[in-house]
Known about the structure:
Number of helices: 10
CATH architecture: Alpha-Beta Barrel
Order of helices and strands: EEEHEHEHEHEHEHEHHEHH
Number of domains: 1
CATH class: Alpha Beta
Helix content: 25-40%
CATH topology: TIM Barrel
Number of strands: 10
Bound molecules: NADP nicotinamide-adenine-dinucleotide phosphate
Strand order of the largest sheet: 3-4-5-6-7-8-9-10
Strand content: 15-25%
Structural class: alpha/beta
Radius of gyration: 18 Å
Shape: globular
CATH superfamily: NADP-dependent oxidoreductase domain
Amino acid sequence: MEYLKADSAQVPVLGFGTYKLTGDQCARAVEEALSIGYRHLDTAEMYKNEEAVASAVRSAGLDRRELFITTKVWMDNLSPDGLRRSLAGSLERLDTDYVDLWLIHWPNPSFPLGDTLATMRKLAEEGKVKLLGVSNFPSALFREAASMAPIVCNQVEYHPYLSQRQVLAAAREHGAFVTAYAPIGRGKVLDDHLLQEIGTRHQKTPVQVTLRWLIQQGDVAAIPKTSRPERMQESIDIFDFALTAEEMKRIDSLARGERLIDSMSGLPWDED
Length: 272
Ligand SMILES: NC(=O)c1ccc[n+]([C@@H]2O[C@H](COP(=O)([O-])OP(=O)(O)OC[C@H]3O[C@@H](n4cnc5c(N)ncnc54)[C@H](OP(=O)(O)O)[C@@H]3O)[C@@H](O)[C@H]2O)c1
């Protein structure tokens, strides 16, 4: 595993996404992922699987400090009271005293951002959260947020078909990292001829080439989701090879502004 530095924390560059996994299926998948070596888990109050994630963590018997757990507050809960209640609920369901990274799941213009961030900061100062971040923030709004609070992360859709150059530039200006969700384009990269060709050269699959391209950028983490153990293993086997600068550039050139996730916020995305 490789790590990104965020404040004093070490963030495993490869995490395990859990969206759409619930109940026993989620607990089994997370347990499997932990046994394979994943130490960064991505959940959200909206996924309704925090209890299942906690049950897998308990079964794995790992020291809490070995894990990096991200959860997200839903966009309706961004008032001071809503935030407190949301975090208390997540901590209870996750059966933990703190989350490593707490994200605003989607921006919501109905709540003043400064007030939301001030409350999130207070909760972090109370020790309930180690790091603060946002998700689905266009670059201008990210800059605004990062100028008001110590925001270390913007979690956004990011795969070879969406450049996200503006989001990446804004994160870099503030020393933050980007977490790529839908990192393998929900499976779309499998049929890509260029990724296949580069993969053949390194004896790797298009999924592995894609994840390597993401994490090799240096300030990007990726959180692929799968319910299948062999795919969990495939996704984590990316630390024994490197792409050349030319291969990185050729993968960059696949960007075509393709978004797979519809905006929930009504705010315009960056043009990428
Ligand atoms: N912040 C946000 O708003 C937001 C939005 C979306 C997602 N996320 C987070 O990001 C995580 C990942 O995103 P995602 O789940 O949308 O997309 P993804 O990880 O790009 O793709 C997941 C899909 O790809 C399949 N898959 C996984 N590995 C594969 C492999 N090696 N070969 C072929 N197919 C494979 C999975 O099927 P199987 O399970 O059948 O293997 C699943 O259908 C989520 O789980 C969630 O934690 C966050």
